[in-house]
From TrEMBL:
InterPro entries assigned to the protein according to its UniProt record, in alphabetical order: HDOD, RNase_Y/CdgJ
Gene3D superfamilies xrefs: Hypothetical protein af1432 (1.10.3210.10)
Organism: Candidatus Berkiella aquae
PROSITE patterns: HDOD
Domain of life: Bacteria
Pfam families, sorted: HDOD
This protein's name: HDOD domain protein
Boundaries of every HDOD domain copy: 28-214
Length: 283
């Protein structure tokens, strides 16, 4: 049993939880080994297609998912492909590294308690929708698509230890509203802690906290603005389970656009629909 119990929302909850993680009083799922190796691949500018294929091939389920993704309508290849090197050649090394990381992470979003398990799946479902929007919106900016989609997938990773904590505290499981408030208020700081401990790039690990501090319109959109705009659009489709934090910043301001009509035009919607289908492979 953990030492820190809450009855009302504790403003210092995130720090208490991080302390328990550091003291090994609260176990969090370890980053899958294949995900660790994929992050190393992503950071290696000299990685080759064959080297990356060798890393992925150690996980047969991941290999099968990638072959399925590479042959999906979004990729629109001229012919069916069935080998990992050809898959990577079609999708691109950086894209494969980041999406493979997301696919590998999916396995840690599950729990034995049914209430917690459902919330974890809600977190992952919302994250994949944010990643899909970020993938499409990033193309309108100078933000790399691969970074935007990975940031979308990882920005709520701090929900994991909060929900792990909840499994041992019946008062939280019996009060879903309080649990959601805890998730909403404290996952950013905990997300940052976990992503740093997992050695994600600074632009990814610092992003969860940055998202709460976007108060002025940028001169040009950066990664945080793209992800926040993606969160806003995900809320509009009722696919995000947490409160919305906008600081009066809509997608138009975040992306430095005169109008956000592009978000409803046929070309954008068609691209988004295809991308959402693609990211459904991550669910």
């Amino acid at each position: 049993m953990h030492t820190h119990t809450i009855t009302n929302i504790d403003p210092d909850f995130a720090n208490h939880l991080i302390a328990e993680i550091k003291e090994n009083k609260l176990k969090i799922p370890t980053q899958p080994e294949v995900a660790v190796r994929l992050r190393e691949c992503a950071e290696n500018p000299n990685i080759t297609i064959d080297q990356l294929a060798q890393v992925i091939s150690h996980d047969p389920a991941l290999t099968a998912r990638f072959i399925q993704i590479a042959n999906s309508p979004l990729m629109r290849g001229q012919s069916q492909i069935n080998s990992l090197p050809n898959v990577i050649s079609r999708l691109g090394i950086r894209f494969v590294c980041n999406i493979a990381t997301g696919l590998a992470m999916e396995q840690i979003f599950q729990a034995t308690d049914s209430t917690v398990d459902k919330l974890l799946r809600d977190v992952w479902g919302a994250s994949t929708h944010v990643a899909a929007y970020a993938h499409v919106i990033a193309k309108l900016t100078n933000v790399p698509v691969e970074s935007a989609s990975l940031a979308g997938l990882m920005h709520q990773i701090g929900a994991l230890p909060i929900l792990s904590y909840a499994q041992d505290h019946d008062e939280l499981l019996e009060d879903p509203e309080q649990l959601l408030t805890l998730l909403d208020e404290h996952h950013p700081k905990i997300s940052e802690f976990i992503l740093k401990s997992w050695k994600f790039p600074d632009e990814i690990s610092s992003l969860p906290v940055q998202l709460r501090n976007l108060t002025t319109a940028p001169e040009k959109p950066e990664l945080a603005h793209v992800v926040q705009a993606s969160i806003l659009k995900t809320h509009e489709t009722n696919k995000h389970y947490l409160k919305i934090h906008t600081n009066d910043m809509d997608a138009k301001k975040l992306l430095c656009l005169e109008s956000d009509d592009f978000l409803t035009n046929e070309t954008f919607q068609s691209s988004l629909d295809d991308t959402l289908k693609f990211y459904c492979h991550l669910n």
